[in-house]
Amino acid sequence: MPPRTGPLLLAGGGHAHLAVLAALARGExxxxxxxxxxxxxxxxxxxxxxGWMTGHYTLDECTIDLRELARRAGVRxxxxxxxxIDANRRRIELAGGDALDYALLSLDLGSQTAxxxxxxxxxxxxxxxxxxREFVVHWRQLLARAVATPRFHLVVVGAGAxxxxxxxxxxxAFAARAHGASVTLVGSAAGLLPGHAPAVARRVExxxxxxxxxxxxxxxxxxxxxxxxxxxxxxxxxxxxATTGAAPPAWLRGSGLALGxxxxxxxxxxxxxxxxxxxxxAGDVCERDDVLLPRxxxxxxxAGPVLAHNLLARLAGKPTLRYTPRARSxxxxxxxxxxxxxxxxxxxxxxxxxxxxxDRIDRRYVRxxxxxxxxxxxxxx
Length: 381
Fold this sequence. Notes:
26% strand
């Protein structure tokens, strides 16, 4: 007989669930047990990782301690990874072998890196951007190799916001420690920064040129020595970083939950599953059935308070709210040492001021969700 949890089970420690924990800590809690299941008690904030790569932040400064958040919220913390869901039986399966029953479930589990199959045929080290904790550990190893290897060449595949930030961050990390190393950014025929205004893409392309980061617009597959571009060109690489978009966890296909066209949990405007109203989902693990919601942390952050309200409302039998995305979202793309590009609709501003704005927002976000004793992650091998 599997152990049972209380009525509300939170699976994952993403941006939206941070808002749920904050609401519970403020006293907006149900008269029932709430459990949080995460594989790691330390959550690395993705928005600050490029700054960590360039040396602006220590890893501790980019990290939120879920143990402290759970304690303040009065939430039972369980350290394990979700490996499956049986939505019809209201049960989740864990990597450690246990299964947990739930009355109400909320998923904020993130996603996997898409397109790794095509790149994995390369004989060069392949480093996906997700899971983020693994990327952080392996980036340290990659940087050490770059320092030790003359004329080291890194290829970043994926020219969305994540790929752009990683390419700039890697370039500046190399400039400080791995002299002679170079970076190439490879995107698809869709071009640089799809979804952003042309003015933003043009400004970023100019900055890439100024920093001598080559930008290639062609699909790529793994090949001996690096990558094979659809143009027929072979692109040599000493290592490859994949920022090729988001893919759903494979086990979702057997969950019984209705899935959207991309394979993520299909949810309505209140972020409840369209097939199982006792399941909510937010962040990268879900897709809306009514609007196209870009996979960006800004939407998970903004949906968080709505998710918190809706979970408590569902437990109390009260109406839920809709999360209505704004017509335009603000993006601040880190493009070097204390330099960033602001993207807001058709508006584009580049320079030091956007970076300081981004730095202030990011530091405040991490600080708002609690600090912890320094040094834990810095000692991680």
